[in-house]
Structures are given as C-alpha cells and as structure tokens.
Amino acid sequence: MTGSYGSESPNRERYRLSFTVGGLLAPQGRIIASFFVGNDGAGNGSVTGDGEDTTRIPNSAVGRSSAGREVGERVTRIRRRVIDENVLAIRTESANARIVSEVVKRLSALTEAEIRHLAEDDVPAADVQALMWVAMCRYYAVVGEFASEVLRDRYLMGAMTVSREDYDRFILSKSMWHSELEELSDSTARKLRSNLFKAMVEAGLLEKDSDTLLPSLLGRTVTDILKERPESFRFFPMR
C-alpha cells in the first residue's frame, strides 16, 4: 500500500521512522478502534459538520468478505472527532493530536477483522497487546524486521535476552541499504530505540529490567484472525 497509511513495504527506499512516542499504545489503540467500528454508541456512520465521512466498519456479518483487507487510510475518517472530543484524555492539544495521529497510522495496517476484535468489549488484554504489536511491526518495516530477524531468531536459537547492543548491531547492518538511519540525530536514534524496547515490554515480549525474552502464547481467537496474514507470526518469539 502506498502513501502514509497501511503496511510499509520492506522494499521502500526509506524506512518510516516516526515511532518516537508512546510505546505500544495498546489502550489508546483499543479506544480508537471502538470508534471506527461504531462501538461508541454513535451508530454505524455519520458525516461531521465539516463534511468528514466517519463511516465505520460494520460489526455484523455485513462486509465479512473483505475482513482480510487492511483498513488503510479509511481509519483517518474518525481522527478529527477523536482529537476534538479528546477521547484519550490527554492534557495538551498538541500531545493529543500527536498521539491520535500515531495510533491511527498504526491501526491503518490492521485488517477489518483485526480492528473488530481489537474493539470488542470483552477482548482479552493479551489480544490487544498482540494486535497493537502486529500493527507497529506492519506499519514500521524496520520494527517488523527487527522482530523477525532479531527478536524471534534469538528466541529460536535459544538466546535468553535481547539487548540494546543487539538493536544497535541490527541498525548498523540495515544502514548499509538505508542511509536515513545514518542521518538520524543521536537523540532521535535513542528515542526510537527506547520506544521500541518500551513497546516490546508492554507487548509482553521482554521483561523490563532484565531484557529477558518471553515466549508468546497467543490466544485462540487472535491466532485464528492472524492466520489470514500468517507472516504476522514471525513478529513474535514463538515456534
């Protein structure tokens, strides 16, 4: 998918490198997903005062034939409303807009079925974490490649930890083909690394203080949903 939304192709010339805030953003992702599917009690769709279409994914069997399709840019239809109503209860307007924009971009890489499950009232917290990790890995190709080439590979080799040094070596190897990694300021590079490790801890993939790898035990429902995109399993430390 081209543009600023949807999964990032690993063949792009330049990586998306804007995951500098928020960690996994799992609670925020679930809240915004519920607005997109209409679980907020506002019905199945409307048009805002400025003409913005906020049509949502249907919860019923309607549209299930396209359940494996990525949401893509359609998720931006509710972005303005989520910002204006400050549904995430963020104190400053600028921070609110920044976090909402980041969550919406990540959600754009999920399929309709994944968004629907994310928005369910009784969705297990572990499923929310798994889907938001998948969203981050799909939206940011460099994160997905780190997950599959370092996180999962180290688990399969029997390694007990994933360290910052492992990340630095990974980035150094990728910079041979992606000069934008070399162009990052030191502060931005540190933020990207810190935020990725924060996300892995929040996703239940690493222990916070020891960086010990935690094997993923995905629930049955989220496993069945991810089977529509089986390449997603490579983002997890599992066999």
UniProtKB/TrEMBL annotation:
InterPro entries named among the record's database cross-references: BrxA, BrxA_sf
Protein origin, superkingdom: Bacteria
Positions of the UniProt region annotated as Disordered: 43-68
One Pfam entry name: BrxA
Name by which UniProt lists this protein: DUF1819 family protein
Lineage: Bacteria, Bacillati, Actinomycetota, Actinomycetes, Bifidobacteriales
